[in-house]
Amino acid sequence: MGRDHVVAGLPAAAICPSAGAARADRSGVVAVTGQAAEIAATGLAQALAAVAVAAFAGPPWNEPPGQARAMADQLLGDTSRSGFVLALAVTAGGADLAGFAYGLPRWQLAALAGQRPEPARQPPFEFCEIAVLPAARGRGTGAALHDAIVAVSGPQRRWLATHTAAAPALSLYRSRGWQATRLVPGPGDGTPRVLMTRPR
Fold this sequence. Notes:
By secondary structure, the chain is an alpha+beta fold. It is built from six helices and ten strands. The longest helix is centred in the middle third of the chain and has 14 residues, at 65-78. It is globular, with a radius of gyration of 16 Å. The two termini are 26 Å apart.
């Protein structure tokens, strides 16, 4: 992002490196952690929900708006958890949110894969969501969000779950070294999701 860009109304100065930001590349994507992530998510709550609704309305997700907004609410609830990472993508003009991704360390997906949580060991990192506006797809935005999260989220093993019919997402993940391990029930109607992992 540029020197004085505004991300959907949030000054870039509020997401400063000293508060836990790492600028990923020239794609308009920035990843933030700690207090910066809480500030960004709170300031962008409506924009995050709007992106989620638009990103998951069509196939293969076909999520009703309420379900997508609930995911955005979950994101806001997770911001205070240790290791939370939020990546934001802005439009070319820098004034609107084009996409986001977030994740945090926890045992949820690893447990689904059959691993027993070990309280004495740091949890693996879970990619919770990557959402990109339909109009912003096909430009590397999802890849930039993914890579920004990887860049700042630590060296531990990673997990994610995605729709079995989400071909662009599956292609992205495989190109970044993710491997499918098993199918697990998805939220809502239980449509299967592909559980994937990579060492770091």
